[in-house]
Here is the input.
Amino acid sequence: MKGTKERIIEATAGLLMRQGLAGTGLKQISSQSGAALGSLYHFFPGGKDDLAADALRVAGRSYLHLIDDYFTGRTDLVEATEGFFEGAAAVLEATDYADACPIATVALEVASTNDMLRQVTADVFAEWIDVGAQRFAEMGVSPDVARELVTVTIAALEGGFLLCRAAKSTDAMRVIGRNMAALVAHRLGR
Amino acid sequence: MKGTKERIIEATAGLLMRQGLAGTGLKQISSQSGAALGSLYHFFPGGKDDLAADALRVAGRSYLHLIDDYFTGRTDLVEATEGFFEGAAAVLEATDYADACPIATVALEVASTNDMLRQVTADVFAEWIDVGAQRFAEMGVSPDVARELVTVTIAALEGGFLLCRAAKSTDAMRVIGRNMAALVAHRLGR
DNA sequence: GTCTATAAACCGATAGAC
DNA sequence: GTCTATCGGTTTATAGAC
Here is the structure.
């Protein structure tokens, strides 16, 4: 049996991904999670910001494991890179362009308006890059190059999510995937 | 003397870029532009969505000219690409990470919630890619490769804005710029 | 821990004087 | 075209019964 707090966090993470922070009301989180409004404040005394911070951290950690699992145990980094973007395109199509990055929308909203939440989004991105660079390095890529390639890959993925959600088409993501794979191959000396 | 309608659009575009759509109130647009609330509805009878659509189109066109002017008359595309990202990094630093993409925040907010505004953001991105590809093609790049490179460049730029605004650092943008320049060089056979 | 009622402020939108 | 007053609804947040 899933606890009330977990259901609140899960519902919040989904709504933040699809509608952003300002576009998501606590009433909506309450009804979607099946938890009373009072329960939200019971588990998150700091109110909306407190809840959003937790939801972003949990969603960021989930997405990290998704990335991590995908690249773990790979032998061909070039092939893995192209497949990674193909997977992102497939998820976009399967969810009618709703499920993309769980952090990006809120990150852009709060970057200039809420320093506490901005720091949370920065921490999530930093952890993604750290762990991704670690995986690349384990596969024989020099630490510096690994970190650069992961940074560019994540940036391109985020830009791809943006272009594809706006256009309701995955064409851009596939183009981006092929070119990022080419970049990885080039920088690995192939 | 600048007209009221122009001041409203300008104020709206700036607020949408920094705070997003749901985070920006009409009252705030009214006070920031110096126009009465009634004037907003006089010029934009369709209300907030009507005004937002116009502000996005105008801001998108301005940014298009910025990109267009930067790449026009260039001889070295590789050098231009790296300089383009350096310029983006400089603007972020000069504005304390407030001025980045005028479309991205709203695009992510409305992608799953407001189809009319989603289409506006899609049109802006499409025009950026069309014009950028045209410029690249004029410099001797084959139309297909030109379109691919511009798509990846814009995606990487958007991802760079996201990572840099969250981290309040331009490190990622410079890494991305160097690697995108390397990709352009590689795909141009250099 | 869960729930409802409600406060206080704010939202988008409208009416109507000037 | 400009401005103010205001409507109806929603927001975040709190109080307090159970």
